User: Fold this.
Amino acid sequence: MILTAGSSGTKRLPPWLRRNIPVLSESSRIEGTIKKHHLHTICHEGLCPNRAECYSRGKVTFMMLGDICTRGCRFCSVGKGKPEKPDEGEPARIAAAARELGLNHVIVTSVTRDDLPDGGARLYARMIGELRKLDSPPVVEVLVPDFGGNRTALDTVLEASPDIFSHNLETVRRLYPEIRRGADYDRSLRLLNEAKKRNREVKTKSSFMLGLGETREEILEALEDLRATGCDFLALGQYLRPGREQVPVREYISPESFSVLEERGYDIGFLEVTAGPLVRSSYQENRLDALSMGNSGAPDNDARRNAR
Assistant:
């Protein structure tokens, strides 16, 4: 793979993945609010390497529908098993926490709930509605599972009018059977495509991880596949193994290689591309705020590149 820096035998993190610990006072405020409202975050459950940084900047990604997932993705540290009944009060508590934290961009994801007929879509819609009731309604971004391909569930979420509708492809087609058990590459693409067909105003977004053994050709194919769905926003980041139960890192990808892919993303028509070793789906999400509110026409990508 020509995008490589390191190998499957590399045990030490490369220098671009080492970082200073940020000031923790804001982190304590966010953690206290999450605990007070009895909520979960993917930042915590997913062992995100950016948690301290994002918390220190007043950023958080809520996680709905409990903390137990019915799928067994081999890159993810979220608990697997049989989840409890959905908490009907969760949407209102998410809105209350968002208000308390003064968030102007609220990102909410969830575990996958294959045990529910609608995959949890109803609670997603209620959560969006609760956020819309706030005195200063934030930009609302939902990062949803594939709902098992249930189009009625998709409609339920879209009818609640999120500003950004996200679903992560996560990896290339060839690695799905190994990395995303229970998921389907084409089903994920269809979900994004159907979302765009049903609501042309909503901005769609996806992300995937590098360093799992994919080739350059496979990455470029995935970029083209995502763009063909009409996907607006793209995020690319380095896979980092959360623990021994997850698959190991095969390669560490250099910042320069991420820059090449970022340029490629713009060249094929994405409105916004965020790419880098520590990028995650919701990392530096404020770059999306202006685009999420329904700009007319495509932005000048050359100007956007020069502004970064």
In short: Confidence is low (pLDDT under 50) at residues 1-10. The first helix runs from residue 25 to 36. DSSP finds twelve helices and twelve strands in the chain. The chain has one domain: 4-8+20-307.
